[in-house]
């Protein structure tokens, strides 16, 4: 279920029961192995520039996901919107792993006004049998990765698009699929945003800290950037201004399938919910061998984001722009820190 409202975390002891809403009680039964499985899944989530802006605390059956301010982007993401989307995606992976282990789960964004650094809190029920709709996605957690290469000229079947719509709706979000005229307008917006990025020294300096070269634990290594587009295409080249001579060039698909992930609200809680919806969509897409990358340069600046909102015209808030389809070639992957590096404490 989508992140909703839940009671604040108390000082639950090892054998105490925590009440989560009217129908869900849970006893603290997490083992060392379960914590490892849960957090290893969580850190596979996507995040802006693979910054991995999360930390975890575990108390009994409760997992807090905290915003790691040291891993946020002051220029590209000054209000922390993208960071909280990444945290939401990590929470969804926690729920998937919990479902595989047999734990029902329920969560709440911004659970404690006195602890604003806690972006989300997840409560786990006592272990029973696997949760069908979540556990079936567990195998996709490690298989999913952002693919920045060209896509095949093969349409995504309508029934699959419908499954992706359902995935977004399950987490309280919507996918707006762009028609040909909207894609053309988005292309113009992307060109302007790319040009603005190239002339923004602060943004380029920040990007250099996370993109290119060899990156064994975080950021985006050069081999995961994808080939340079041989002509203008609807793809984001994150290298912007510091290309490697070794990068190949490729012709990208002329008519990409693009969706804008939207939420009805615009606040920190909505950003976390957008992350849950994003990750459910991406994992469902992976079950159909689809790949995805993001065109978020139009969302990282205020003016083009409002222009995108006008373009889709449904009064909701665009949170992610997703380019999706069937990958045309193999691609490098980004890496993750060991989950222990993000694990603060276990009460």
From TrEMBL:
Sample GO molecular function, one term: oxidoreductase activity
Annotated region (Disordered), positions in chain: 1-24
Range of residues in the leader sequence: none
InterPro entries in the record: Nitroreductase-like (IPR000415), Nitroreductase/BluB (IPR050627)
Coiled-coil annotated residue ranges, if any: none
NCBIfam families, alphabetized: Rv3131_FMN_oxido
The protein's name in its UniProt record: Nitroreductase
Native source organism of the sequence: Kribbella pratensis
Lineage of origin: Bacteria, Bacillati, Actinomycetota, Actinomycetes, Propionibacteriales
């Amino acid at each position: 279920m989508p992140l909703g409202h839940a009671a604040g975390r108390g000082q639950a002891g090892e054998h105490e029961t925590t009440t989560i809403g009217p129908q869900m009680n849970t006893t603290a039964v997490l083992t060392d192995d379960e914590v490892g499985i849960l957090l290893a899944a969580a850190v596979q989530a996507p995040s802006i520039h693979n910054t991995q802006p999360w930390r975890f605390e575990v108390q009994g059956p409760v997992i807090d996901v905290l915003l790691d301010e040291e891993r946020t982007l002051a220029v590209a993401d000054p209000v922390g919107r993208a960071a909280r989307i990444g945290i939401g995606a990590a929470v969804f992976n926690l729920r998937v792993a919990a479902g595989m282990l047999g734990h029902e789960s329920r969560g709440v964004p911004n659970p404690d006004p006195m602890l604003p650094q806690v972006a989300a809190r997840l409560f786990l029920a006592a272990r029973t049998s696997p949760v069908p709709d979540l556990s079936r996605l567990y195998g996709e957690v490690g298989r999913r990765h952002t693919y920045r290469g060209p896509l095949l000229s093969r349409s995504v079947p309508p029934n699959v698009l419908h499954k992706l719509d359902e995935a977004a709706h399950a987490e309280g979000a919507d996918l707006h699929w762009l028609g040909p005229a909207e894609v053309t307008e988005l292309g113009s917006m992307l060109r302007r945003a790319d040009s603005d990025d190239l002339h923004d020294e602060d943004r380029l300096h920040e990007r250099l800290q996370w993109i290119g070269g060899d990156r064994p634990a975080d950021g985006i290594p050069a081999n995961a950037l994808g080939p340079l587009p041989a002509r203008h295409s609807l793809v984001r080249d994150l290298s912007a201004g510091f290309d490697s001579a070794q990068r190949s060039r490729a012709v990208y698909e002329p008519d990409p399938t693009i969706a804008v992930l939207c939420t009805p609200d615009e606040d920190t809680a909505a950003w976390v919910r957008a992350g849950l919806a994003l990750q459910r969509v991406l994992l469902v897409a992976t079950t159909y061998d689809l790949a995805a990358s993001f065109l978020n340069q139009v969302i990282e600046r205020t003016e083009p984001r409002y222009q995108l909102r006008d373009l889709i015209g449904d009064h909701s808030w665009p949170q992610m722009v997703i380019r999706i389809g069937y990958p045309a070639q193999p691609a490098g992957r980004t890496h993750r820190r060991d989950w222990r590096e993000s694990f603060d404490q276990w009460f």
